[in-house]
Amino acid sequence: MEPSLPLLAGLLAVKLITLDPGHFHAALVQKISYPQVDQKVYVYAPEGDELREHLKIIQGYNTRRDNPTQWTEVVYTGEDYMEKMLSEKKGNVLVIAGNNGKKIEYIRQALAAGMHVLADKPMAIRPEDFEKLKACFRIAEQNGLLLYDIMTERFEIATMLQKEFSLLPAVYGEQQTGTIEHPAVVKESVHHFLKTVSGNPLRRPAWFFDAEQQGAGLVDVTTHLVDLVQWELFPEQILDYQKDVTLLEAHSRSTPLSPEQFREVTGLDAYPAFLQKNVSADTLYVEANGVIAYKIKNIHARVAVSWNYSHPEGGGDTHYSILKGSKAHLIIRQGKEQGYQPVLFIRATESVERTAYEKDLQEAVSFVAGKYPGISLRKTAEDTWEVHIPDNYRNGHEAHFGQVTENFLQYVEHGLPAWETPAMIAKYYITTCALKRTQDKKNK
After folding, report:
1. Residues 386 and 322 in one domain
2. Contact, 375 vs 388, CB < 8 A?
3. Phi and psi at residue 303, to the nearest 5°
4. Which of 28, 337, 394, 427 could hold 401 in an S-S bridge, CB 3.0 to 4.6 Å?
5. Which of 200, 216, 198, 218 is nearest to 208 (CA)?
6. Final residue of a domain: which of 104, 127, 149?
7. 378 in any annotated domain
8. pLDDT tens, 369-381?
9. Alpha helix locations (H) across 189-255?
10. Contact (Cβ atoms closer than 8 angstroms) between residue 37 and residue 116
């Protein structure tokens, strides 16, 4: 794909537009500055708390003590904000993070108007959104544009190292295929409604708790997990969702929230009318949790996401992952024992001779350390080693948004790799099909 933006002094002249920023992820894209991006950002949104919270976060980045940014937000708040954005077309890269029920139409119109789109996940939350999303990718291709979702977890260091070691046959061996009962790849994450962002308590909009606007658990955070399965197992390979993916099982369940908990996280004294359908005996039931079992190129995978109200003291969101090879299982844990930091373990299978394997493993660590200086091994059991990761690699979830954006800007300049769009299509096929499976069960 040829870049469609004009060159300016050897760099791309990128001008950002932020549309209806109802989620704090929109602000995290601007936590740092980018040399090829204009400091003036045009914001089109309805007036309200969501916009004010977005601008407050940006102002915090501009006024912080260390490495302050210099963003200038030019804001339009009329009810015709979408039409105004399309008619003025002040920028060429649109950032979307907010009400997911509106997202697919936002994406379609922006691409049709000639803008690149960097969208927060998920881009599709309903089964019918999948065909609409495919149509959006066709529009992007026809117009020489990029449509890309923000996959921050690819930049988490434990996951990056898990992938690195899985590519070394001396350490990992051959990829196991697993079964539905014992999948060869498992990824699970636990999230919390009550949290802080950039050091401040997060105020969530009421629609965040409505599956019709935010998306059910099966189509929301699971996008990250499904993305990682593909990214680790089939790096830079083109996937065909019609041939390579088979959905096996899908399950969902709700997280209960009391009126007091809802008030604390939203600031609202009552449930709005659109949430009443999910209220029973004064408790709000949020369709936030899900499990998907599927095969991808004959490898059994399972992803699961859970939402709690708040995390334990000293804790936060957590991630568990296991990749099963013939020589070793690569396991990420992030529990209390790990100080709620993701830690990678390498556990040898019974099939390997320990002394020879440990020698191969030490050589492999030396090789990987050439790319990630400072990593080392610590033996924690007869068959298990912890990969020590220096603190300088642990830059945190918020920093990953800048890394994704930097990556996206490189794609804008040089073109999207051939495997990225098929991977996104396969990902949203899995999540939307899983949701349809559970909906069909409920409707029987």
Report:
1. yes
2. yes
3. -125, 145
4. 28
5. 216
6. 149
7. yes
8. 999 999 999 999 9
9. 222-233, 241-244
10. no
HSE on the CB side for 273, CA within 13 Å? 0
3-state secondary structure of 212: coil
C-alpha pair distances (Å), 55 with each of 23, 90, 235, 305: 12, 19, 37, 30
Q: Give the structural domain span for 44.
A: 7-149
Element (H, E) at 156: none
**Is 429 part of any domain?**
no
Verify cis geometry, omega within 30 degrees of 0, for the bond prior to 6.
no
Residue 139: pLDDT above 90?
Answer: yes
pTM of the model: 0.94
Residues 34-62 as b/e (b if ≥16 CB within 10 A, e otherwise) read bebbbeebbbbbeeeebbebbbebbebbe
Return the CATH number at 232. Answer: 3.30.360.10
Instruction: Please tell me the distance from the alpha carbon of residue 258 to that of residue 422, in angstroms, as a whole number.
Output: 41
Could you give the CA distance from residue 144 to residue 100 in angstroms, rounded to a whole number?
A: 25
Q: Which two tokens stand for residue 152?
A: 């921050």
Tokens of residue 154, six digits: 């690819």
**8 Å CB contact between 213 and 100:** yes
Of 123, 149, 175, the last residue of a domain is: 149
Residues 136 and 160 in one domain: no
In this predicted structure, what is the pLDDT of residue 6?
Answer: 40
Residue 183 identity (one-letter amino acid): P
Look at residue 409 and tell me if it is in a domain. Answer: no
Place of tokens 């060159």: 7
Exposure string for 284-315, b = 16+ CB within 10 A, e = fewer: bbbbbbbbbbbbbbebbbbbbbbbebebeeee
Concatenated DSSP letters for 242-260? HHHEEEEEEEEEEEEE-HH
Mean local confidence (pLDDT), 19-33 = 95
Asked if residue 315 has pLDDT above 90, the reply is no
Question: Does 262 lie in the same domain as 191?
Answer: yes
State whether 351 and 337 are in the same domain.
yes
What is the domain-level CATH number for residue 65? 3.40.50.720
Contact 14, 34 (CB under 8 A): yes
Contact 178, 185 (CB under 8 A): yes
Whole-angstrom distance, CA of residue 24 vs CA of residue 51: 10
Residues 224-272 pLDDT 10s: 999 999 999 999 999 999 999 999 999 999 999 999 999 999 999 999 9
Are 254 and 363 contained in the same domain? yes
How many whole angstroms separate alpha carbon 398 and alpha carbon 316? 13
Q: How far apart are CA 230 and CA 226, in angstroms?
A: 7
Question: Are residues 158 and 105 part of one domain?
Answer: no
71 and 169 in a single domain? The answer is no
